[in-house]
Amino acid sequence: MVKNRAIALVDCNNFFVSCERAVNKDLQNRPVAVLSNNDGCIISRSEEVKKLGVQMATPLFQVRELLEKYNTAIISCNHGLYREFSDKVQNVLVEDLGDKVVELYSIDEAFLDVGTPDKLKLLGDHLKSKILKETQIPVSVGFATTKTLAKLANKIAKTSEKANGVLDLYNSPYTDLALQRTDVRNIWGVGSRYAAHLKNHGINTAYELKNTDPEQIRSYLHVFGARTVMELNGIKCLPLEITEKDNKSIAHTRTFGHTISSFCDIKNAIFYFTTRALEKMRWNNLSTKTVTVFLKTDRFNPVPYYYSNAYSYNSVYHSDITSEIYKWVTVCLEKVFRPELRYKRAGIVLSELTSVESISLRLYEQVNFERWHKLSKLIDEVNLRYGRDIIKLAALQDKGGWQSQSTFRSNDENHSTSREHLGLGKTFSKSVRFL
Ligand SMILES: [Mg+2]
Predict the structure, then answer these.
(1) How many angstroms does the Cα of residue 141 sit away from the middle of ligand 1?
(2) pTM over 0.70
(3) What would the pLDDT profile of 343-377 be if each residue is shown by its tens digit?
(4) Quick one: which of 3, 11, 150, 338 has the most CB atoms within 10 Å?
């Protein structure tokens, strides 16, 4: 009989907090809480903050006094930083195991196809210590035959002292014991609403769910329920989804802290997004030929009406020059912008990416292109070393009214030394992801 292949789930511990600690040593021995966009809720907690009883997604105002009493560092989220660390962790996995077996599931989780080895605990310990050494991010690793079971193994690995961050439920005789000790609510995707349904039917533990007829579950939890029962029985229903690296694109999109209507503010936001996306593109040594700009109004407040529109500009030549691509996105913006509206969300996508070395020469202006290309690369390097937008084009205004309110944001500029030490930014040379 062919042995079922093992799936690993590598999950970064308290990811946003761990990233902030990696770039700021002063946070190592302090409780840390990271806030959502606009500083509304707590979205990442250090172990100390968890022990204070602060739950995930608690509004800051409810616990602010408590956090301050325990000298907690309260930090606005910095998704750019987290994406860089995410890339770095992913690169360690790809380097170690190859890119055909890694599914980046979320910013801080990856599923891996690790074949059928016997000594998974050793592999887990190896990945955990290598990622910690190379990125300073602590991770936990869980192994099992299905994604649902790997999620559970990872959860136990995180909390069990004995497991110490790595748990193998693939070669283990204790899977059923683990399921007996797991509340059905803690199974991947079940949550409190489905758990209430299951408990009404007398199913309280993951083990009881495993031993239920999938068809019976289907009657009230539909396909999801039936699939979960199968996965708990070790039958793979959720295959690994490996991202294809062909046909790449890079996007930068944001929801604004408040709606904005002025063309100038929107253009400034679009230029800012374009600048960030181009930095990432150039780190990958790529150039683009097609840019897309989209604008959306607030779907929950459609006054005078809901509007969502996008426009793409296709150039004859590939380019990686900021000033030239600013012109392309301006053309797009003029097509989609309507002055009577207030916009809530906007973004840009760079597509038809190709390596700078392979692009065709320009009939005119080839010398100028090469000069600007070198200058753009140089600006990126200076900004990476000394802080974001230390050098920028005059067209990119200072941060305007479009930015979301993030008063507690950790300062990128202060991190330049430790960022360099960690080799951040350079990670982009390895992979481009859909964002
Ligand atoms: Mg995590």
Answers:
(1) 11
(2) no
(3) 999 999 999 888 887 777 776 777 788 888 888 87
(4) 150
* Ligand 1: centre distance to CA 206 (Å): 21
Please write the tens of the pLDDT for every residue from 66-120. 999 999 999 998 878 888 898 899 889 988 888 778 887 777 899 999 988 888 9
Q: Ligand 1 center to residue 97 CA distance, Å?
A: 21
Q: What angle do helix axes 214-232 and 147-159 make, rounded to 10 degrees?
A: 60
The amino acid occupying position 77 is C
Write the burial class of residue 271 (CB in 10 Å: 0-12 exposed, 13-18 middle, 19+ buried): buried
> 15 C-alpha vs ligand 1 centroid, how far in Å?
5
Nearest Cα to Cα of residue 435 among 309, 312, 322, 276: 276
Distance (angstroms) between ligand 1 centre and the Cα of 16 equals 9
Q: How many angstroms is it from 14 CA to the middle of ligand 1? A: 6
Domain range 13-98+114-144+159-168+411-435, CATH architecture: 3-Layer(aba) Sandwich (3.40)
Q: Could you tell me which CATH class the domain 250-404 is placed in?
A: alpha beta
For the chain, what are the domain ranges?
Answer: 13-98+114-144+159-168+411-435, 250-404
Compute, in angstroms, the gap from residue 297 CA to the centroid of ligand 1: 32
